[in-house]
Amino acid sequence: MQSFLKMSYRILKITSFYKDFLSQIYNNHPELELKSYSAQYQFLMDQKYAWSDFFKVHIEKLGVEVIEIVHNADYLQLAWQKENHVNDKNSILYEQIKLYKPDVLFFQDIKSFSGDFIKNIRNSFPFVKLIFGHCCSPYSALDLDNYQSYNFILTCLDGFKSDFEKIGIKSYKLDHAFESSILDLVQTDNHFPKKDFIFIGSFVSGSDFHDNRFQYLEKLLEENIQISIYGNIIIDSPLQLFTKQSAFKVSRILDRIGLNSINQKIIPLKKVSTLKQMPKRVQISPLLRKSMVNETHYGINMYKLLSKAKIGLNIQAGVSGDYAVNMRLFETTGVGALLLTDYKKNIKDFFEPDYEIVTYNSVDECIEKSKWLFENPDKAEEIARAGQKRTLKDHALKDRFYKIHEIILENLK
After folding, report:
1. The pTM is what?
2. I need a surface site. Which of 50, 121, 339, 355 has the fewest CB within 10 A?
3. More confidently predicted of 398 and 187
4. pLDDT of 36-67, one tens digit each?
5. What class, spelled out in words, does domain 2-177+396-412 have in CATH?
6. Cα–Cα distances in angstroms (integers) from residue 51 to residues 54, 208, 274, in the given order
């Protein structure tokens, strides 16, 4: 621990929360938008969504000052604007950087900021010594240009790291992990019913996203395997789909004629610039639609729901390729459910298959192993216990954050 304390610094972490999560929170708690900045901030962090304030909690134990901003939480940011007498709402983030004077800037949502914005920060605030970002989602050629404005990038994908380094972007691999303090909270006021088998996740069409989720879940249901499906399906209206398809075509034309910088400036173009295929209508079978639970849970409620399951199914997004990377690996095992996940070439870096988790290589094998686990509940429970033990021992979020701290120190020298 002493080696961590040799150098202190002030870091400003700029975060984005999923828009649907923010909408759900403020719709369910309409009084929240009228509260102070500090009250809104604490309420959001108490939901334990994504990294919550875990980064701040753990890194401050190392003698580092951490400030966190959820820059896309509109009511939160407007409260800060009012309390700090900022006239222009478009300059709130700029004014926050100016006020807090960080040595280090950490953009967790790297895709929301242009390279020009990062260059402007460097030119305007000489006290900022280091700027880095985090990328675990598909990116465009223009995004790669923007990423070159950072000192380094953290990523959860080996393929991304390789792509970055080929064009001279310093990159570090950072795996997802589990926050053990969640375990005390999931037992408190947990009124979710027990589930034998559960899937929790989003459904976005596209080869880089979740096309395979539709296939796997439909096949499981056709085999009369009882699985509770909690999914957020994004279905565009005909007009929305036409707009996306038109934007996709324009984006590709701009890429071909060397004007891809325009994609960054026009929101409809920016949204489709990372897609590899033409946006298409989501096709959902009646069986899958009927089987889905019409509820969406985030943060601590998602953990509570998952903790009541005996088996949690994981189907990774297409962008992961041959590698196991997503957060559900550690969320499922962390709360004590058995993880049934797609086999990837690096899975043994995290867990021992058939001892700490169960893996499948195809939809048929997924069906076969699901049935076997139902028929062997004692063995399933044994594997679940081993998986949780491994996550708590080797995949603690605290340790991932300490790695970030070491990387920062290395780059500040």
Report:
1. 0.88
2. 355
3. 398
4. 999 999 999 999 999 999 999 999 999 999 99
5. alpha beta
6. 6, 24, 25
